[in-house]
Design brief:
Layout (H helix, E strand, L loop, with lengths): L10 H7 L20 H14 L18
């Protein structure tokens, strides 16, 4: 079995974290702009911290969003 990457959040850990996050309503001035999934955003943060790259260099291919937005 392969070892999980340090930025991957397993389902058990996510079940503990998710209830702690606030519910954010969509902004009426940007109704078409969708927020990045909270789990993906946290994984992006953990990726940046574990690889020591700059936030702006976060690869979009990983699905964590863009570091600039």
């Amino acid at each position: 079995m392969s070892r999980p990457k340090p930025w991957e959040i397993d389902d058990d850990l996510w079940a503990m974290i998710e209830p702690l996050l606030p519910v954010v309503e969509r902004r009426p001035d940007h109704p078409d702009r969708k927020r990045l999934d909270n789990r993906k955003a946290l994984q992006g943060i953990l990726f940046v911290l574990s690889t020591d790259i700059q936030w702006e260099w976060l690869p979009q291919e990983l699905g964590f969003g863009s570091g600039m937005t």
